[in-house]
Amino acid sequence: MTFGHKFAKNRVARFKAMDLLIDVNIVLDVCANRMPFAPISAAALQHCKDQGAKLWLYAGSVQTMEFNMVREVMRKAEAQNTQIDKRHCAALARRALKVFAQDKHWLASLAGEGNVFDSQDPEDEQLVRALSRFTADSIKLLTRDDKLCERYPQHTITPQQYLQAPQQAKPLSFIDLAGQQDNLRPQLERNVHRVLHHGQYIMGPEVAELEGKLAEYTGAKHCITVASGTEALLISLMALDVKPGDEIITTPFTFVATAEVIALLRATPVFVDIEADTCNIDASKIEVAITPRTRAIMPVSLYGQPADMDEINAIAAKHGLTVIEDAAQSFGAEYKGRKSCNLSTIGCTSFFPSKPLGCYGDGGAIFTSDDKLAKAMREIRVHGQEKRYVHTRIGVGGRMDTLQCAVVLGKLERFKWEVEQRLRIGARYNELFASKVSKVIQRPDRTSVFAQYTVFVDNREQVQEKLKAAGVPTAVHYPIPLNRQSAYEALSRISGNVPSSDAMAGRVMSLPMSADLSQREQDQIVKLVIEALSK
Ligand SMILES: Cc1ncc(COP(=O)(O)O)c(C=O)c1O
């Protein structure tokens, strides 16, 4: 499908041309200003940038680029009858390449692109092999090399062809993981390759490194990485020795995992209603839900904002209960200056890819400052093992693998900045919507990392349809509260009634949110949401 510039103005979408891998001849055209090719080669690169597509340089071509660029500089010096100082020419060449590379992405050369000596042109073969990593038609090699174009027509494009090619629409992402990866590629590739080389895929050094960094970040004494956020909650309950018939107080307005782990242990989820403005558990309704069977309170820091943790901790202390914060959505948020995950005896988070701190698969972590609980959690994580093949308790296979820890370590390098951006973008949504759109309220004594930016709408399906047509993806977290899920009806108990949870399930709608969301994109989303609501 193709869209013209006019349509682009009325629709939120990044109108993205195909990404380009830049062949050395194009690099030289632009860097050495080779005539008559330089203008059209430069125009193709500019066009790619203007469309928000990526320009790639192949790391395996660095030497060819440098060798030829030095030759170009020397040739120019010769033509101008300037005295040729080879070292000076090399320095000029490298400087030009360095400037050129500044806004490009480096495409790593991988092992499979090494043994190309049977090929008529090994370097071309390398480039084509590198392109095979991408999905069809998402990238082409920009080149002026006729022979290359003839041999690999499906992988190559000339500057002229590129400038004439129709634009492709790339819809706005609900969560822009690709944009995040573009900014973290060197760290991610370095970390993943390191694991491939040391080969300790289970409990490799990255696991302890990540646990140390995350514990330090939250201020909790212990961090225990686990296979997922769900596993974090399950292992926490197992470490508390929750038994069949025990009751765990929680919110019905959450992802199913929160109650699922309780039910898995044959304990009873007891649902307490939420506050209609924050969608978090209403702390003032917890105490009446407590019975002699209550063992723990499990508030969820929904959408990235912690619940009233002081009040919840005080109730728990009064009744001898443990508080487990389900912080799957709130890693990085703060409550009265303290980090989410370290706001109660136990905090559990998820590294599901779309979470504020995500990996590229499943992962999670438990935080506690209680030494005994931490020891139990570490053992339960590995089949209840005290030492190898000595099983002193029932456990699970619940480790987070080394590769996923390596990914999170890479992402941590930019996480502080990402949290700042999330706070800024969330505050900007709040400001731009002002009184025109009702939304989840932020309490002044805490922050939200906006795992979701959520507004309240009455005719949700229609609004979602309109926004979809305008290129704005939306999502609903969550359309059916857990007390209304058939699997939980017989297994759970509702404390009093849950009118706010029922009502909000029909009204919540989440909007695109990522640390890399641009102001322009956000302005368009806001405008379209206000329009969709007013019609
Ligand atoms: C509130 C909540 N709890 C628990 C989980 C479970 O995390 P995971 O998907 O990593 O198992 C999630 C993830 O979606 C969540 O949002």
Could you characterize what this model shows?
By secondary structure, this protein is α/β, with parallel strands linked by helices. It folds into 3 domains: 5-171, Rossmann fold; 181-414, Type I PLP-dependent aspartate aminotransferase-like (Major domain) (Aspartate Aminotransferase, domain 2, 3-Layer(aba) Sandwich); 416-534, Aspartate Aminotransferase, domain 1 (Alpha-Beta Complex). The chain contains 20 helices and 21 strands. An 8-stranded mixed sheet has the order 8-16-15-12-11-9-10-20, sandwiched between helices. A 5-stranded parallel sheet has the order 4-3-2-5-6. Strand 5, helix 7 (146-151) and strand 6 form a beta-alpha-beta unit. It is elongated and about 95 Å long. The protein starts with a helix and ends with a helix. Mean pLDDT is 94; it is low at 1-10. The site of pyridoxal-5'-phosphate has 15 residues, from helix 11 and helix 12. Pyridoxal-5'-phosphate (PLP) is lined by residues 228-230, 254-255, 257-258, 300, 326, 328-329, 350, 352, 362, 364.
